[in-house]
Design a protein that fits this description.
about 130 residues; mainly alpha; H-NS DNA Binding Protein
């Protein structure tokens, strides 16, 4: 059995048909043990991708050179994550589904189709602030 067979639900179902739940649980336990072993050795993430491994070494070097801790790096990364904008427009599309739009970026196709068919303005769908 190769990795493609292990990751394909249909093939797994066919291969395990007729086996008891106890046998399947034993297999799952063995797979979980392997997963923990690989996670401990980081075999599946870094070593399987040489480019990623090189990048990590460079980052570790820069962090050591500049006395940066992982906590400091995480704080900066969290700080830089953009927050999702609140919706400014709410409308029911021609398909009957409710949509929202922040007003940023291109006009959604669903809203454009609605505006074209009704002759209304996008401001007619603006969410009223209370």
């Amino acid at each position: 059995m190769d990795i493609k067979e292990l990751s394909n639900l249909r093939i797994l179902r066919a291969k395990l048909r007729g086996h008891s739940v106890k046998e399947i649980n034993a297999i799952i336990n063995k797979l979980n043990a392997l997963k923990q072993e690989f996670a401990a050795k980081k075999i599946y993430s870094i070593e399987s991708d040489p480019k990623k491994a090189d990048s990590i070494k460079i980052i570790q070097g820069v962090m050591t050179e500049n006395s940066l801790s992982l906590e400091e790096l995480n704080a900066v990364l969290k700080e830089n994550n953009r927050k999702k904008m609140a919706p400014k427009y709410r409308y029911i599309g021609l398909d009957g589904l409710e949509y929202t739009w922040s007003g940023q970026g291109k006009l959604p196709k669903t809203l454009k189709a609605l505006l074209d068919s009704t002759g209304k303005n996008k401001e007619d769908y603006r969410i009223k602030e209370e």
